[in-house]
Each structure stands twice: as structure tokens, then as C-alpha cells.
């Protein structure tokens, strides 16, 4: 009943939108009750169309009344063609194009009914390009013409660019314009529309003239047979005015081919529960077509399936809904992808900004690193130069030490030669050493006196400087003291000069002693033989200690301080013994 209600609503919608309900609503409701065989409810009708704002028309509109009082009471025992014709009459005058068409008003009505069957279940009603193609193909096949797919593709492209589909009146204009039926006369087009109308709207699966054998007289009469999903009706002629009977079909019916008999050919038998019908087709082809069509109808009844054209329409609708759902899902995914892409773009922009900031920081750090590297390179260069200088100094020191070592070795060799002569001059050497010690002590005393005098002189000079800075009142007194101190300084200078002379004399004496020592060293013989008996008289030359160097007749660092003290004690003992 739900599918029937939807089919009825489409036709009613055209009439509903074409009328002014304030003046014609009662007329539409009355006509609907009449053609749909629904009992009238005058009280509800008057209440609904009451001329004040309290009536349901103002509050709820016309559709609640239509559903409750009319459509819910429809049982299906009405003439669909008569119902559609009533709705067509109410809306055609207002909407049908005034331009001349190649089809009659009756054909336009049939196209309008076909539109309601093929249109989408949403309002305002339109027929989509796929259903337009299906309808035009059916009409073209019914006319026996070839389908022009390329022409329709161009028309479909132009249509899709402007809107989703056509209204009923635009479809009538399209078919009535002859755009897809060029070369066909009006009668051919009308017959094609009527054939498609019979199939899609009246559920006529097959029709045609055949001979039927009577049940009582057993005579053969020509009848016009019309096959529908659950019934075969036969008429006197194809105008369907004089109906002679029906063959009720169900799942228990069957069709069998019969051999020729009684001068009749192309026979077949239709078996039902209560009756059997013998029929003769005009030729074998028609016989086979009718047998196959009836068998297909019985098979659909057994399976509980709808007629082929309704099933095909439902499949096309489901396919479009599936494609629409897939398209919507694709659009949703595209939106999600676009949103994700935008988010990614924002993230990439954020990352790009972060990378730019990181690049700026990296550039700044690189700049600092390069600056630090330059500084380190400069510092390293300075340290390298310093290291080179230190290395050069070390090399020079090594070379100097090497030279000193060569000199030392040379001196050792010389001393070995001198060792042989040193034995004879040993006594002279001892005396020379005593003289040397005396001169050294004298020199040390003179140096100490000179140091004391210099310190005293510096003290007087400092006092003199301090005195100069005194006030003018003390200047005269200080001048006298300065004169006295200058005299004293003069005396000290003379003493210092005297000490200098004495030091020079001591140095001269030291040179004389040194010459004597050299003379004694030249006269020394067999020095090596005496080394074992006189341990400690000679030592190999080694690098000196950090203590102050001592000067002897053998050169710097010839004796240690302890050895020198031991020899002093030995000389003093010998001197005391000789005295």
C-alpha cells in the first residue's frame, strides 16, 4: 500500500500545486473520493475547509487531511487511468505548453502518467537523465527506429550543466518536439507512446489477436488477448470496449504446446485450477512468444516478484541511490580529505615557520660557530706560533746543550790529556788554591762592603728626595743637611772608588793565581793514576744546581759547597801545622 500511496501522491501533487485550495480544495477532495472509491465524509470535509483561521487548513495544511481521510482508505479497487485523467484535467490547462506539439493531448496525458511512474520520490517532481534515456529508448524501439546514443549524450551533457532533470511538462515538450523521433509520423509516435504506456502503466506484458476455443460450443473465435502480471483478458477487438472474459493466473498455472488438430495450427494450452484454455496463434513465432511470456509471468507469480518493468525501475532507482550514496560518501571523504589537507597545510605552515625560525636560529648559531671557529683558529694560530717559538727555543736549547755536550766531551778529552801532567803540579795547585781562597774571601768582603755602601748611598739618596719635598720653611735647614750629606756622599764615593780599585787589584791577583794554576796544571803528570788515591780531586762536568755558582781556578761549578768547606778545613789544618 505504501508504493500505491506514493504513486497516487505524485498525480495528486500536480493537481494540488495547480489549484487554489481556498476555493477549489473541496472540489479536489470530492473528485478524489469519487475516482478512488473512498466513502465521503461531508462533516470532516466542511470542518477542514471552514472559512476561518480555526480550521485545520490554516493550522495543518491540506496533506494531513488527504492522508487521514482519503489515502488511508484507498483499497486499490479503482481505475488508475480514470484517477490519473482526473488529476491531469486539473493541472494540464495551467501547465501544458501553448506551443504546437507533434503529439496529441491524449499522448501528452500518457507521457505525463509515465513521468509520474518514472520520476524520483522527492518534490518538486523531476525525471533524471537516466530515466529519460530509458523512456526515449522504449519509445524508439516501439517505433522500430534506431537509438541515437550520441545525440542523447550531447543532450544529457547540456542538461546536467543546468539542472538535475526535467519536469513533467518539460518532458512532454521534449517528446512532442520530435527531437528524438525525426522522420516518424504522428501516428507512429502515438502508437509507440501507447505501447510504452500499456507496458509501464497498465502492466501489459503482451497483447495481440489469437483464436480461442469455446468451452460450450467448442467453436474457434478471434479475440484480442491482453497479458498482465496476474491475468489474461480477452476482448472482441483491440479497442477493449467489449470484454469477453479473463484467465486468472497464479503459481499453479502452466502452459503446454499442442500438436496441430482439427485444421488448427500453432496450438498451445493454458491450464488453470478450474479451467483449461486452448488457443491458436497466427504463426509459430507468435506461439512461442506467447508461451514464453505466459511462462515468465507464472514464474514471477511463483517467486512473488513484481513485473519486469517495475523490478527494472526499482533496480535502476536502487543503483542511482547507491551511486548517490557513494557520491555523497566520496564527497564526504573529499571534504574530510580537504579538511585533513587544510589541517596538514596548517601543520606544514606551522612546521615551515618553525623550520624558518630553526633555520634563523641555526644561521645565528652557525654565525656564532663561525665566529667562535675564527676565534679558535686565531687562538690556535697564536698557540701554534707560540708552540713553534717554544719548539724553536727548545731546539736552540737542544742545539746549545748539544754544543755544550761537545764542549764537555772535548774538555774531558783535554782533561784526560792534562791528567798525566797534573801529578807533578799537585803541591803548587794546593798553594794556589789557598791563595785563591784568600783572594775569594777578600773579594767577597769587598763586595759586601760595596753593597753596604750602595745601600747607604741609596738610603741617603732616598732621604734627599724626601727632603726635597718638604715645605719652604724647612728648605734652608734641609739645604745645610743636604750639603753635609753630599760631603758624606762624596766621601762614600771616594771610598767606593777605593773599594773598586781594591777589587780590581784582587781580580788582578786572582788572574795571577789563575795563571799560576794553569802553569801548575801544565806541569801535572800521571793524573789518572793519582785519581784512585786522591778521590774527589776532580769531577766530571755536569749541569750545575740552582744554587749560586762558585768560582775556582778550574772553572764554574768545579766543587760543591761541602767539598769546598772540607778543603778549607784541610788547608787551615795544614797551615796551623806549618806554623
Automatic annotation (TrEMBL):
It comes from the Eukaryota. InterPro entries: EF-hand_SWAP70_N, PH-like_dom_sf, PH_domain, PH_SWAP70. Keywords: Cell membrane, Cell projection, Coiled coil, Cytoplasm, DNA-binding, Membrane, Nucleus, Phosphoprotein. PROSITE patterns: PH_DOMAIN. Gene3D superfamilies: Pleckstrin-homology domain (PH domain)/Phosphotyrosine-binding domain (PTB). It is found in: Cell membrane; Cell projection, Lamellipodium; Cytoplasm; Nucleus. GO terms for molecular function: DNA binding. One of its GO terms (cellular component) is cytoplasm. Residues 309-530 form a coiled coil. Residues 203-299 form the PH domain. Pfam families: EF-hand_SWAP70_N (PF25530), PH (PF00169). Phosphatidylinositol 3,4,5-trisphosphate-dependent guanine nucleotide exchange factor (GEF) which, independently of RAS, transduces signals from tyrosine kinase receptors to RAC. It also mediates signaling of membrane ruffling. Regulates the actin cytoskeleton as an effector or adapter protein in response to agonist stimulated phosphatidylinositol (3,4)-bisphosphate production and cell protrusion. The SWAP complex consists of NPM1, NCL, PARP1 and SWAP70. This is Switch-associated protein 70. The gene is Swap70.
Amino acid at each position: 500500500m505504501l508504493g500505491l500511496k506514493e504513486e497516487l501522491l505524485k498525480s495528486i501533487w500536480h493537481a494540488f500545486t495547480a489549484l487554489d485550495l481556498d476555493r477549489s480544495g473541496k472540489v479536489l477532495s470530492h473528485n478524489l473520493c469519487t475516482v478512488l472509491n473512498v466513502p465521503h465524509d461531508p462533516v470532516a470535509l466542511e470542518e477542514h475547509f471552514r472559512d476561518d483561521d480555526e480550521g485545520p487548513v490554516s493550522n495543518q495544511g491540506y496533506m494531513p487531511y488527504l492522508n487521514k481521510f482519503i489515502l488511508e482508505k484507498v483499497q486499490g479497487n479503482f481505475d488508475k487511468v480514470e484517477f490519473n485523467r482526473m488529476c491531469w484535467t486539473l493541472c494540464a490547462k495551467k501547465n501544458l505548453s501553448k506551443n504546437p506539439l507533434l503529439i496529441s493531448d491524449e499522448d501528452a496525458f500518457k507521457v505525463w502518467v509515465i513521468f509520474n511512474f518514472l520520476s524520483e520520490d522527492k518534490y518538486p517532481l523531476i525525471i533524471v537523465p537516466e530515466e529519460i534515456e530509458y523512456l526515449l529508448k522504449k519509445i524508439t524501439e516501439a517505433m522500430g527506429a534506431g537509438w541515437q546514443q550520441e545525440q542523447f549524450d550531447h543532450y544529457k551533457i547540456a542538461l546536467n550543466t543546468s539542472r538535475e532533470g526535467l519536469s513533467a511538462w518539460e518532458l512532454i515538450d521534449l517528446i512532442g518536439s520530435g527531437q528524438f523521433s525525426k522522420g516518424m509520423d504522428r501516428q507512429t509516435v502515438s502508437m509507440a507512446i501507447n505501447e510504452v504506456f500499456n507496458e509501464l502503466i497498465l502492466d501489459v506484458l503482451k497483447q495481440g489477436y489469437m483464436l480461442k476455443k469455446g468451452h460450450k460450443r467448442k467453436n474457434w473465435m478471434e479475440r484480442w488477448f491482453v497479458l498482465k502480471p496476474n491475468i489474461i483478458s480477452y476482448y472482441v477487438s483491440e479497442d477493449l470496449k467489449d470484454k469477453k472474459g479473463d484467465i486468472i493466473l497464479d503459481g499453479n498455472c502452466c502452459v503446454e504446446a499442442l500438436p496441430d488438430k482439427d485444421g488448427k495450427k500453432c496450438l498451445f494450452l493454458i491450464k488453470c485450477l478450474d479451467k483449461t484454455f486452448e488457443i491458436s496463434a497466427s504463426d509459430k513465432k507468435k506461439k512461442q512468444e506467447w508461451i514464453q511470456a505466459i511462462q515468465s509471468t507464472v514464474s514471477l507469480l511463483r517467486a512473488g516478484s513484481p513485473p519486469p518493468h517495475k523490478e527494472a525501475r526499482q533496480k535502476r532507482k536502487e543503483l542511482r541511490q547507491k551511486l548517490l550514496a557513494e557520491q555523497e560518501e566520496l564527497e564526504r571523504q573529499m571534504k574530510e580529505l580537504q579538511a585533513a589537507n587544510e589541517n596538514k597545510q596548517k601543520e606544514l605552515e606551522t612546521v615551515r615557520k618553525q623550520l624558518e625560525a630553526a633555520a634563523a636560529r641555526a644561521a645565528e648559531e652557525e654565525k656564532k660557530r663561525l665566529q667562535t671557529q675564527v676565534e679558535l683558529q686565531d687562538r690556535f694560530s697564536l698557540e701554534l706560533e707560540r708552540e713553534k717559538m717554544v719548539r724553536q727555543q727548545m731546539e736552540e736549547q737542544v742545539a746549545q746543550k748539544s754544543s755544550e755536550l761537545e764542549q764537555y766531551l772535548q774538555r774531558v778529552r783535554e782533561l784526560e790529556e792534562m791528567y798525566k801532567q797534573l801529578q807533578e803540579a799537585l803541591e803548587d795547585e794546593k798553594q794556589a788554591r789557598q791563595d785563591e781562597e784568600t783572594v775569594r774571601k777578600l773579594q767577597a768582603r769587598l763586595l759586601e762592603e760595596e753593597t753596604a755602601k750602595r745601600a747607604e748611598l741609596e738610603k741617603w739618596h732616598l732621604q734627599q728626595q724626601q727632603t726635597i719635598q718638604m715645605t719652604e720653611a724647612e728648605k734652608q735647614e734641609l739645604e745645610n743637611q743636604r750639603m753635609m750629606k753630599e760631603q758624606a756622599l762624596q766621601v762614600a764615593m771616594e771610598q767606593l772608588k777605593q773599594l773598586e780599585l781594591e777589587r780590581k787589584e784582587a781580580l788582578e791577583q786572582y788572574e795571577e793565581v789563575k795563571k799560576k794554576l794553569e802553569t801548575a796544571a801544565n806541569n801535572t803528570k800521571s793524573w789518572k793514576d793519582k785519581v784512585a788515591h786522591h778521590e774527589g780531586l776532580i769531577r766530571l762536568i755536569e749541569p750545575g744546581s740552582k744554587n749560586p755558582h762558585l768560582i775556582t781556578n778550574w772553572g764554574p761549578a768545579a766543587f760543591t759547597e761541602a767539598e769546598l768547606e772540607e778543603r778549607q778545613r784541610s788547608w787551615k789544618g795544614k797551615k796551623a801545622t806549618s806554623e
